[in-house]
Amino acid sequence: MSMPSKAPSRSRRLRLSALAVAVTAGALLAGNVTQAEAAPPEVISRWNNELVHSNSVSPGFSMFLSSGAYTISAKLSAANQGSSTINYSCILSAQGGADTDVAAVTLAPNATQSVVLNVVHNFTSTGQLTFACTKPVGTPAVRMQQVKITAIKVNTLDNQPF
Questions:
Q1: pLDDT one-digit tens code per residue, 84-104
Q2: pLDDT class for 16, splitting at 50, 70, 90?
Q3: Are residues 112 and 77 in contact, defined by beta-carbon separation less than 8 angstroms?
Q4: CA distance 112 to 136
Q5: Is 156 helix (H, G, I), strand (E, B) or coil?
Q6: 36 pLDDT exceeds 80?
Q7: Which of 81, 85, 27 is nearest to 54 (CA)?
Q8: Contact, 75 vs 115, CB < 8 A?
Q9: 40-58 pLDDT, tens digit each
Q10: For the chain, percent helix, then strand, then coil, each to nearest 5?
């Protein structure tokens, strides 16, 4: 003797399946409620493909960045235009020197060298970013080529020595 089967109706199975999907989706969403979605980075870039640095301080660059965390890089090719060696130095500085990077190179006569700098800084309010290069008075001119300065606003910043 067999027992009659009492299988749930098709509509009841669909309702149960829909309920299971809704509960699972709700559980997944509830787990993400406390996590904020990351904002896309904001990129600010400035460039000059040809500057002549004839005085002791190069044509400097300065701009203001809105509050937030940034990673900032600068790069250029420095070309010695003369026949004597030049001790050449560039600085990238955030917030009046709160965070800086300095790159010093020795430019051989008629030679070109890359200069790269990087700074990370958290501006608590609008703050200044500056870039400049220096060389001794009376030394040959330096062609600053392909100067690129890029600030990328990021969601968080962890800046520690290693």
A1: 999 999 999 999 999 999 999
A2: very low
A3: yes
A4: 17
A5: coil
A6: no
A7: 81
A8: yes
A9: 899 999 999 999 999 999 9
A10: 15, 50, 35
CA separation for the pair 102, 91 (Å, rounded)? 4
Residue written as token pair 């701009």: 63
The C-alpha atoms of residue 129 and residue 122 are separated, in whole angstroms, by 12
**Pair of tokens at residue 84:** 């004597």
Tokens of 99: 């965070």
Taking every pair of Cα atoms in the chain, the longest distance, rounded to a whole number of angstroms, is 112
CB 61 within 8 A of CB 151: no
* Structure letter (DSSP) for residue 109: T
The label of the residue with tokens 């300095």 reads 102
